[in-house]
C-alpha cells in the first residue's frame, strides 16, 4: 500500500515481474477491494501466481516508526513481514515508510545473531562496475561496532552478488589514518584486525565513484546524503545536457543524433534501476524500493529480492558472521 | 609552497591573476630562491605587484594540525597568516594542508566574537544557480550550536555575494521534523527562533541540487563527503559520455559535433572553477584552494579572496553576527 504513487504502480510492477520471472509467485498485502480493482486492469496476468492477503491498515509515509510499531497491528507492512516470519512467503518488498519498515522488520523478524542493527545497502554504479554502499539511512547514529558489522555484512552480500574477494573500505574525509571522526577511526582499527576480510582502508567520496572498493561503509546519515545528492546531481547534469542541445539549430541536430546515446547513459545511471535497497542482518529477506521509484524501480526491488533468495543471502550471512565477528 | 603540484602552478596562477586584475598586489610566501626561479620563467610579469616574503619551513600535506601549530614557527602558511594579522596583506590564499591551515588560522587570526569554530564554505552549482555549502570538512563533529553559527555565517556570506534574502536550510535525510540526528533536530529549533534569518527548514541531498536553498548547512564530515562524491560522480559521467561517443562511427561523428557543448558543460560543473573555499568566522579573509586544483583552481581561489575583500566580508559578518546570534 506504500510508495509515493501508491499501490497502482506497485501492482503494475508486480504484473511485469510475474511475466519476466516464470517461477515467481507474488502475494499482495493490503485492501483487497482496491487491489482487485487494480489487478482487473491487467486481464492477462496469471492469477494462479498472484494472490492477495488482506490488511485493514496502512502506515503513512510520515508516520513515526514507534507509532507504526505500537498503533497498527493490522498494517499491510506488518502483515507482510509476519507472512515472511511464518514461512508463508520467502521475501518481503515494500515502497513504504523506511523507518517504519526497519522498526517492524527488527520487531517481527529479529536480527541475525551478532548483529545489533540491520543496515540498508544498495548497488551504486562506479567507473569500474558497482559498489555496495551501506548504511543508506536506517541508522542515523552509528558506533564503531555498528560500522564494523556493516562492513562484514556488506562483504558477504557482495560475495553473494558475485564478487570473489570484495574490497571493503570505510568512507572518510581523507585516506590518512589521522582523518575522520572517532567512530570511523575506531572502526578502522577493528577492521584491520578482522580475519578473512579484505579491508583496504579509507576511501573518499571521489574514490567511491572511481571504483576503489566493492563495499563502502558509512553511517546512515552520510550514506543517505551521498545517495540522494548523487541522484540530484545526475538529474541536474541530464537536464543541462538537454538544455545545451536545445540552444541552436546545430545543437538541436546534434542533440537529436546524440539522444539514443544519452538515453543509454541515463538508463545506466538511473537510480530507479539500482534502487532495490536491501535490509541486511535480519532473519529474512526485506527489500526497500525508493518511495518515488515508480514501476521500474519497484520491479528492480523485486528482482533484487529474487537474487537474494536464490543466493540464500540470510543463511550465508549467518554462516559467515560466526567466523568474522569477534 | 603547498598543493599537490607545489609552487609551480601557484606561481603560474598568480601571474595570470595579476594580469586579469590590475589593482591586485600579491605576496608569495616561501623559499625565495625557488620562487624567484619560478617567477623568472614569466618575464612579462609586473614585479612591482609581485613580492616575496621568505619562510624557511613548509607544512606537508599529511602533517597533523597540532604538529604544524607547535613545530614549525617559520612555515610559509604561518608567515602568510601573520602578514594578514599584522595588516601587511588583506587576504591569505593557500592550497596546502586544510587541517593545518584551519588550526593556524584560528591560532593566528582568532575567530570573530560569538563564533566557536570557523567553517569552510564553497559555491556549489545547482539547477537554478549556486548554493553556499558549509561546512566542507573543517569541523568533523558539530554540535547544534555550531550548525546554527554556520547557518548565520553562510547567510551573511551569500548576501555579500549578491543574494538579497538567502534561503537557509539544514541538510538532512528527510524533510519531516522527526528525521535526522539530535544535532540537526536541535539546530532546526535554534534556527526557527532566529530573527532576521530566512530559515526554510530541512533540505535533502537531491533538493540541494534542485536549488531549493541558497545556503545549505551540515557538519564537515557530511559536507566533505557530499562535495567529493559529487566531483567523483561528475567525472564518471563525463568519462561515460566520452566512451559512448567512441563506440561507433556514427557516435564518433555525433561526439565530434557534441564536443564543444560537452566542454561547456564540464567547464560549468568543474570543481576547479568553484573551488575557492573560504574559511568563514575568522578575523581575516582566508581562502583554501583544492590541493589538486592546478592553475585554474588557484586562480579562482584568488578571485574569491578579491570578492570577499571588495565586499568587506569579515566586517559584514561581525556586524550581522551581533544581531543574529542569541
UniProtKB/TrEMBL annotation, chains A, B:
Top-level taxon in the UniProt lineage: Bacteria
Catalytic reaction equation(s): a fatty acyl-[ACP] + phosphate = an acyl phosphate + holo-[ACP]
GO biological process terms, semicolon-separated: fatty acid biosynthetic process; phospholipid biosynthetic process
Any GO MF annotation of the entry: phosphate:acyl-[acyl carrier protein] acyltransferase activity
Any coiled-coil regions, as ranges: none
Xref: InterPro entries: FA_synthesis (IPR003664), Phospholipid_synth_PlsX-like (IPR012281)
SUPFAM superfamilies linked to this entry: Isocitrate/Isopropylmalate dehydrogenase-like
Enzyme Commission number(s): 2.3.1.274
Record has Amino-acid biosynthesis as a keyword: no
Pathway annotation: Lipid metabolism; phospholipid metabolism
Keywords in alphabetical order: Acyltransferase, Cytoplasm, Lipid biosynthesis, Lipid metabolism, Phospholipid biosynthesis, Phospholipid metabolism, Transferase
Localisation per UniProt entry: Cytoplasm
Matches recorded under Pfam families: FA_synthesis (PF02504)
EC class of the enzyme, as a word: transferase
Gene Ontology CC, one term: cytoplasm
Quaternary structure note: Homodimer. Probably interacts with PlsY.
Entry similarity comment: Belongs to the PlsX family.
Role played: Catalyzes the reversible formation of acyl-phosphate (acyl-PO(4)) from acyl-[acyl-carrier-protein] (acyl-ACP). This enzyme utilizes acyl-ACP as fatty acyl donor, but not acyl-CoA.
Protein name: Phosphate acyltransferase
Organism (species): Pseudomonas rhodesiae
Designated gene of the protein: plsX
Amino acid at each position: 500500500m506504500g510508495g509515493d504513487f501508491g499501490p497502482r504502480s506497485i501492482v503494475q510492477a508486480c504484473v511485469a515481474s510475474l511475466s519476466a520471472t516464470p517461477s515467481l509467485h507474488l502475494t499482495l498485502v493490503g485492501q483487497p477491494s482496491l487491489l482487485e480493482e487494480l489487478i482487473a486492469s491487467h486481464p492477462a496476468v496469471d492469477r494462479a501466481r498472484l494472490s492477495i492477503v488482506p490488511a485493514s491498515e496502512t502506515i503513512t509515509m510520515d508516520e513515526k516508526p514507534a507509532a507504526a510499531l505500537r498503533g497498527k497491528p493490522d498494517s499491510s507492512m506488518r502483515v507482510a513481514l509476519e507472512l515472511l516470519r511464518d514461512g508463508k512467503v520467502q521475501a518481503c518488498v515494500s515502497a513504504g515508510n523506511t523507518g517504519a519498515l526497519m522498526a517492524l522488520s527488527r520487531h517481527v523478524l529479529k536480527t541475525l545473531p551478532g548483529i545489533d542493527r540491520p543496515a540498508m545497502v544498495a548497488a551504486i554504479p562506479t567507473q569500474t562496475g558497482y559498489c555496495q554502499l551501506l548504511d543508506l539511512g536506517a541508522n542515523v547514529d552509528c558506533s564503531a561496532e555498528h560500522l564494523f558489522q556493516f562492513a562484514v555484512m556488506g562483504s558477504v552480500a557482495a560475495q553473494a552478488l558475485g564478487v570473489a574477494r570484495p574490497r571493503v573500505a570505510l568512507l572518510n574525509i581523507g585516506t590518512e589514518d589521522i582523518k575522520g571522526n572517532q567512530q570511523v577511526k575506531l572502526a578502522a582499527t577493528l577492521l584491520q584486525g578482522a580475519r578473512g576480510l579484505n579491508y583496504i582502508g579509507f576511501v573518499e567520496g571521489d574514490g567511491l565513484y572511481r571504483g576503489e572498493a566493492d563495499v563502502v561503509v558509512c553511517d546512515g546519515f552520510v550514506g543517505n546524503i551521498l545517495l540522494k545528492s548523487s541522484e540530484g546531481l545526475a538529474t541536474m547534469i541530464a537536464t543541462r545536457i538537454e538544455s545545451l542541445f536545445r540552444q541552436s539549430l546545430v545543437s538541436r541536430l546534434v542533440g537529436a543524433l546524440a539522444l539514443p546515446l544519452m538515453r543509454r547513459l541515463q538508463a545506466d545511471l538511473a537510480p530507479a534501476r539500482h534502487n532495490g535497497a536491501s535490509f541486511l542482518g535480519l532473519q529474512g529477506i526485506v527489500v526497500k524500493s525508493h518511495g518515488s521509484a515508480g514501476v521500474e524501480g519497484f520491479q528492480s526491488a523485486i528482482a533484487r529480492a529474487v537474487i537474494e533468495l536464490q543466493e540464500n543471502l540470510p543463511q550465508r550471512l549467518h554462516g559467515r558472521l560466526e567466523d568474522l565477528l569477534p
